[in-house]
Design brief:
- There is one protein chain.
- Helices cover 44% and strands 14% of the residues.
- By secondary structure, it is an alpha+beta fold.
- The protein is elongated, with a radius of gyration of 32 Å.
- The mean pLDDT is 88.
Length: 549
């Protein structure tokens, strides 16, 4: 199969979500099924080197290199074998190589100097190394070029490329009886494909319970030795092609993101609603070409919110009562409640200085601290008496959209500790990792995680929610989040975030306009998902066809 034929047959994968990754998986599937390169009738059948490997194994046992292993079961039709090309043979992994256990270590044996101790984390994400001064058997060391397999929760094959190391208990060393009779890189390819098969089954965590016995019983489709080399060469070639395609896709995505930013910039920089309309008309006719990804539509949603809180989304009415009067009324009512001891004074709110405000507001608008626009409600209760109420936690809320994506009762949630009681119409805001922007308007009464603030809005709650979700709010949240070790907003920090407040009638108009435009975004996203689903179904159909015996 040439690269051109490969792309012609599987090019649709690129249009699917994670399409390049699916292409890589397809390469491995084709490789181990004998469908990646042509067979050569002059190649020596795989059965011959397999027999020689058995002789080499028996000789090494006779020489006392290792003890005679347990006899592996014969391969039968019950093993759900796939049909192999001419010259190929099936063999148990343990017939081809030795699976050697690593060594478990106690804390006092893990030192700061000596021979490096290779743990699973060092193969995946961790740069933290331990060392050992123990003198061990030769087969407990791993040298450059050795084939190993990590079998714990993070799992997969590796050809070790580092210095001599001692490998940990959660790693197997795969030692060849005769590496001239089986191409190491082909076996590595097979183990890559087997690993992705396990992960795709949804039972990848079962590798944590994989035993040496089960590993040895894996059935390997073995091609003729010459074909093994051709397969690996083709796999390398196609993986390089995937790398190239991935780089091109990333470059296109980067260019697309820059284009979206360039398109949105005139909108957010427009002087007023009229100028915003002019900028909006410039891109209106190109919607289908501009908004082709979920990410681009999400950027559009954020731009809409930015325009909303900048006062550039709807026309202003100079005859409306200004926001300053509204805020004065709110403050007067607050003082009355404080005197009646209905609420406590929010002692955290600071005066707004001129240098505090991020930009100039439209006529009739005014900046306010968040704590002046809400009342923090905290009513911690035990969940026992509220089992049939709705329970909401940060994971129930979609990031940055104000949408509730998971509904469950207190009983279904299984919570045991105290939760905050909330009431329909309150804003629920997650103080944990606040830059994720998880906030909703409560659709009913219920209980929420103690990591959430129930808030009583003193202005239009729908407008305030959209302000919370806007970049103006988020920029301040990120600054606060970076100042603390644990991303968690306290009442002091949250109270002093600045919010631009329009006249009350304009708040209502903004909410209506935002909802109208968000509905358009919903339609765009639905169209994109339909397209992605079609591409995914096509890709899966090909996978099933290839995977068929």
């Amino acid at each position: 199969m040439t690269n051109e034929q490969f792309l012609q047959q599987f090019g649709h994968f690129i249009d699917a979500p994670n399409g390049i990754q699916k292409l890589r998986e397809m390469v491995l599937q084709l490789a181990v099924k004998g469908k990646l390169v042509a067979q050569d009738s002059n190649d020596e059948a795989a059965s011959i080197p397999i027999k020689k490997i058995q002789l080499a194994k028996e000789q090494q046992i006779a020489d006392g290199k290792f003890k005679k292993p347990k006899v592996l079961p014969s391969i039968t039709d019950d093993d759900d074998l796939c049909e192999l090309p001419h010259g190929w043979s099936h063999a148990r992994l343990g017939e081809l190589i030795r699976v050697i256990n690593g060594r478990a270590y106690k804390r006092h044996e893990m030192l700061e100097s000596g021979t490096p101790l290779l743990r699973v984390g060092n193969l995946f994400t961790s740069n933290e190394w331990y060392y050992s001064d123990l003198e061990l058997e030769d087969d407990k060391y791993c040298d450059e070029g050795d084939l190993i397999y990590a079998w714990s929760a993070s799992f997969g094959p590796f050809i070790w490329s580092g210095p001599k190391v001692i490998y940990h208990y959660h790693i197997w060393k795969l030692d060849f009886y005769d590496d001239s009779l089986l191409f190491k890189n082909y076996l590595y390819t097979f183990l890559q494909e087997k690993t992705q098969e396990i992960k795709a089954s949804g039972h990848g965590i079962s590798m944590a319970h994989m035993t040496k016995d089960k590993m040895e019983k894996l059935i390997v489709p073995v091609p003729p030795l010459a074909e093994q080399h051709r397969i690996v060469a083709k796999v390398d070639e196609l993986m390089a092609l995937c790398d190239q395609l991935e780089a091109e896709c990333n470059a296109r995505e980067t260019t697309h993101q820059r284009l979206i930013r360039a398109v949105h910039h005139p909108l957010t920089e427009a002087a007023d609603a009229k100028a915003t309309k002019t900028a909006w008309h410039r891109i209106r006719d190109n919607f289908a070409d501009l908004y082709t990804t979920i990410e681009s539509v999400q950027a559009l949603r954020q731009t809409i919110l930015q325009l909303a809180v900048q006062g550039k989304l709807v026309e202003h009415n100079p005859n409306e009562k200004p926001a300053s009067a509204l805020l004065d009324e709110i403050e007067s009512e607050r003082q009355i409640k404080i005197k009646k001891k209905l609420i406590k004074r929010n002692k955290f709110i600071r005066e707004i200085e001129y240098d505090d405000v991020p930009f100039e507001l439209a006529t009739g608008w005014k900046w306010s601290r968040f704590g002046s626009l809400v009342e923090f409600k905290s009513e911690l209760v035990q969940p026992d008496e509220f089992q049939d109420h709705e329970q909401i936690a940060p994971d129930s809320i979609e990031k940055g959209t104000g949408k509730l994506i998971l509904r469950r009762t207190v009983e279904e949630s299984g919570i045991k500790g105290p939760n905050n009681r909330f009431y329909e119409g309150q804003i629920l805001y997650s103080k944990i990792r606040p830059s994720l922007s998880k906030a909703i308007i409560a659709p009913c009464d219920g209980l929420c995680s103690a990591d959430m603030y129930p808030l009583e809005a003193l202005i239009d709650k729908e407008f305030l929610l959209r302000s919370i979700l806007s970049e103006v709010f988020l920029e301040q949240v990120r600054v606060l989040e970076n100042r603390i070790k644990m991303p968690k907003l306290n009442v002091d920090s949250l109270s002093n975030i600045l919010v631009p407040v329009p006249p009350l009638p304009e708040q209502h108009r903004i909410v209506t306009k935002v909802d109208e435009l968000m509905s358009l975004c919903d339609q765009l996203e639905a169209n994109i998902r339909d397209k992605n689903d079609t591409a995914t179904r096509y890709a899966e159909a090909i996978v099933q066809q290839i995977a068929a015996p």
